[in-house]
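Structure ticket #2291
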Amino acid sequence: MSPPTRIAAVTGGNKGIGLAIVRQLALQYPQSKFNNGPFLIYLGARDKSRGEQAVEELQADKQLKTAKALVQDGGLTDIKYASLDIADKKSIDDFAAFLKKEHGQIDMLINNAGVAIDGFDSDVVEKTLAINYYGTLEACETILPLIRKGGRLVNVSSMACKLHKYSQELQDRFKNGKSVQDYTKLMEEFKQGVRDGHWTKLGWPTTAYSVSKSGVTGITRALAMQEQSKGSEVLVNSCCPGYVNTDMTKHRGQLTPDQGARTPVLLALGDLQGQSGLFWEHEQVSSW
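Resolution: structure written out below.
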């Protein structure tokens, strides 16, 4: 096999939307403007056996076989499992070091990994933010320097990130944030407010998941501004995949995982005409 000319990494890639994103990247890459030769996708997962099982599932996937998308069938794309747990800084550091040593640079990172924990208390808030906000941020800041000029960073957020449920003061702070530190300060204030028992008086909603995803949408904006100021031409966007039938929605969602993958894959492979730092849903820019 020829060495890959394009490389992507997908976090939380072993099931649900993440698995569908990997599938759709393989299907859509040949027609995309990124196609300039062999394509390698790293399917990131915490659990080795589940990650490797997901790769085997994709290698046997009828849709991919019919399209002759994978190298084994004469196509352009190879899919490999990568050990990656965004809740573990060492795991992220190790993966980034591997990418740098093996390839030097990559073309796209899609941060899909996340959790939705039932209930609401300070423990739920801590655990949710640790993965959805801080884990995603760690993955962004560690791997973003490896994304080559013209590449893409996509953060899977949620329609739950929308700001109408916050006080006007908090809405303004989210909308006017300029740096990652601005959003981290907001997340820390939310955690403290829940610990102290007066988060609602401070204007916060009673949902850890929504706040974590508002933070993800915020850091996406901040990182996009950072990249633009450096002239890197890496496009950084966040999106809502929609209400998808996955474990995270307890299979209550109406959309299939492949339908949920549409907007993240558009942001990874599509012609965005330079648009960056935006929140997308239904394959178009949406209000925050």
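Closing remark: The beta strands are 6-10, 39-45, 77-83, 106-111, 147-156, 235-240, 279-281, 284-285.
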